[in-house]
């Protein structure tokens, strides 16, 4: 997919596959092009490229609500309409049986507020209603833009279980977020974009392997001499203080052997895996236009 806006790149030459039976996290910093991609996938904006669901583009689907469930803008519901009223309208418009309204509300835990005006809903309740709308046609595919947005920790746990269950039923679930920590809890696979381009696509475990690294931390009173000895053995020291060296290797045994051979005292020696959040920021840093305060 490619989408050029007047002001510059929205999405550039982006291609990826999403598999059934798994939750795929669609991750990228603010402005990376996630919303643009989702809109392109659904034919909501014009651009180059094609996304297929069981072989057809969204606009070619005979029965779109029964094929692809979409959560894009959960705020776009008339505030005086009740949750059930909103779903009845969508069901009627999409030729779905009215009984699905209560089934969908109960799936997301909103049955007790079915007749309450949506204007009085919290952000989390709106997200749930957005999900109920996506699930109304019992679709095989789900495309969810920031489904965990506005949810409290309980809500995030709920949505994690919920998306896993949907994927466990064999559905194809694509959920976007700009927060890696959120995605790391939610997703089996990750598609990571930055500046409208693909940075990585694969399993979450592969992403962790590729973008985090292990280092050996060694602490003791004579780090200056140890640093020289490590260097002589081809080991690179990343960071060092008078008390601690961070060695660019995962070979604890080799670091211990060098220390022992040189007879230098060591107080502590251990393997440390770098932080995934830092790795994600590093992987996408060159693509970020504006990094605001963390929200
Ligand atoms: N209608 C538009 N007109 C012009 N530029 C746009 C438009 N929509 C998006 N863009 C630009 O395209 C790029 C991608 O934006 P997009 O909203 O798709 O990113 P995003 O990853 O969804 O970001 P966020 O996490 O903030 O929602 C940004 O540089 C944005 O400014």
UniProtKB/TrEMBL annotation:
Gene3D superfamilies membership: P-loop containing nucleotide triphosphate hydrolases
Keywords from the UniProt entry: ATP-binding, Nucleotide-binding, Transport
GO molecular function: ATP binding; ATP hydrolysis activity
Keyword Cytoplasm listed: no
Domain ABC transporter: 1-220
SMART domains with a match to the protein in the record: AAA
InterPro entries attached to this UniProt entry: AAA+_ATPase, ABC_transporter-like_ATP-bd, ABC_transporter-like_CS, P-loop_NTPase
Family assignment from sequence similarity: Belongs to the ABC transporter superfamily.
Protein name: ABC-2 type transport system ATP-binding protein
